[in-house]
Amino acid sequence: MLVTYPNMIRATILCAVAAACAWAQDPIAPHSAYEPPAAKAARSLAASTKASPPGLLTTGEKSDWNETAPYAEAVEISRRLERASRFVKVLDIGATPEGRTMIALVVSKDRAFTPESAARTGKVIMLIQSGIHAGEIEGKDPALMLVRDMVVGKKYGAWLDRMIFVIIPVFNVDGHEYFSPYHRPSQNGPKSTGLRANAQRMNLNRDYIKADTPEMRAWLKIFNTWNPDFHIDNHVTDGSDFQYDVTWDMARNQDIAEPAGAWVRERFVPELDKRMAADGHLVAPYGALRNAGGKREFFMEVFSPRYSHLYSAVQNRPSLLVETHSLKAAKTRAWAHYDIMRNTIETIVADPEGLRQAVREADRLMAARAGDRSAPAVYLAGKVSDTRRPLVYHALKNGPFKSEVTGGTVNRYLAEPDDLNTAIHDQIDTVTEVQMPLGYLVPAAWTAVVDLLKLHGVEMEKTGKALEQEFETYRFSNIKFAANSNEGHVAVSFDARPVKEKMWIPAGSYWVPLKQHRGRLALAMLEPQAPDSLARWGLMNSVFETGFGGGGAGVYLSEPIARRMMADNPELRQQFEAKLAGDAQFAADPRARLQWWFQQSKYEAGDAGRYPIARVWEKNW
């Protein structure tokens, strides 16, 4: 049973506060050794506040960004914006585990407040979300300020001639409401913040594929009905101190289809970086310095579709992961969020059709691979490449000092820039890829798989008759379950061997064609070797179970069968002895030895260890 937060968190907070009062008046406030010179004025942020009517100011603005308000303020300001402008509509999009209403604002000059009417305008649709990790909340107020600047102050009213916005001010509403000054010890304000996880102790930014949470199921309905052309996810990151006030990540390699990837690499990122620099920001890709052959070099991270920006990417949509830095002042972070959203919009508004064409051509070209054996394989997983290019990384000088607490040395950053001539690794080497079949057949019994595909908006149809023929699928071996639960699941690793076998697919099963907008998403969910496949998340664990019981009567009754098989089949005996010689762990495990023989026998069900979903190259029914 999942444990919810209310009593546990209140007790934790009371204990934390009581303990803190025993030794300190206030929580320790960490801070960066370096703030960008332009951050003090934060001109764009200040100009927005100055132009605002008093009733539309946020607590962040009124407190010089030292505080943030409860969720009720975001809802109230959203309602006031709706009353102030006929171009704003507030939607109730779902309910949290604790029953709070989630909202989104739609901002449209055409009053296109439904996905269907928005699509008919032909305008770029942008989805912006903040507070998926509710302690990282600096995107909330700046997003509402940008709406205010579009429809009330009208400084950016021209954006609405070319774009429609769907804005979720707080994604993790329950987590947002558990305020404490002790939730983010490595963050420089606001005074109190919410939690990273939701009320079910789930990390929403790991839930995009498995969709366990009510919040994610609400989000998927928004994303997969509005079909945004671009997505922004606002976060705050922890880590070493440096000069940068904001970092970003985007799928831009094999992890997003072309030409959407080319648009990101060649048109969007260079223009965004240029605009941010002109506003006084220091911007870098998200990643970290690591030791590489005795030198410090910068490495990006490789993400998978469990994360927001890669979930968008498997639907061929560019997504900007924004990571301001926890050690910078809260005002600096708010300014960075405001400007990176503003400059992203300005970049797209300059050529909205360029983005729309790239996205739709990516849809077309990816769908065209389905069922084409001569088409290139599709990327599923990768690692950071050794390929490098020059980079000047704007770090800070640092050095060790002796700690009386640890008895050892602790690193300390200094307010002195350290501009490091190094290299960046921002390309991906493919580790796992697969050719895209025409589609999949999902047997009717696998209702949980079917329900998840439907939730993700994947198109499918029921089969009208039973099918019995040869199909491609996989056989599993080397199956290992994780030692601990992760995000409410016990994950499983395995080797998946492609096979072609006769399979029986009952009537009423589901045909999932891949010549569709979400074909690559279906591939990421149904190819078992994909990093976030439903099989890897442990949603299909019964597939890995054998008919061999292995205990008590199972051993007593199975051993004579195995002994007889060993005597009657010299070739199998040679295979068994070779495995004994080459696998010491197997040789020392009596149950595994007996199970090996059971799996070679006719007593083992023919579909044991076989993936139940068929890969189809020709639809012949």
What can you tell me about this protein's structure?
This protein has 18 helices and 20 strands. The protein is α/β, with parallel strands linked by helices. The model is unreliable at 1-24 (pLDDT under 50). It has helices spanning 6-21, 43-51, 59-62, 71-84, 115-121, 140-151, 173-177, 214-226, 260-278, 308-313, 330-349, 352-368, 447-455, 519-526, 553-568, 570-582, 584-587, 590-600; strands spanning 88-95, 101-107, 124-130, 163-168, 230-237, 246-249, 283-285, 287-292, 295-300, 319-325, 378-384, 389-402, 409-425, 428-434, 439-442, 461-462, 467-481, 492-505, 510-513, 614-616. It has an eight-stranded mixed sheet with strand order 1-2-4-3-5-10-6-7, with helices on both faces. Strands 8-9-13-12 form a four-stranded mixed sheet, with no helix packed on it. It has a four-stranded antiparallel sheet with strand order 16-19-15-20, with helices on one face.
How is the topology of this model organized?
Elements lengths: L5 H16 L21 H9 L7 H4 L8 H14 L3 E8 L5 E7 L7 H7 L2 E7 L9 H12 L11 E6 L4 H5 L36 H13 L3 E8 L8 E4 L10 H19 L4 E3 L1 E6 L2 E6 L7 H6 L5 E7 L4 H20 L2 H17 L9 E7 L4 E14 L6 E17 L2 E7 L4 E4 L4 H9 L5 E2 L4 E15 L10 E14 L4 E4 L5 H8 L26 H16 L1 H13 L1 H4 L2 H11 L13 E3 L5
Parallel strand pairs: 3-4, 3-5, 5-10, 6-7, 9-13
Antiparallel strand pairs: 1-2, 2-4, 6-10, 8-9, 11-14, 12-13, 15-19, 15-20, 16-19, 17-18
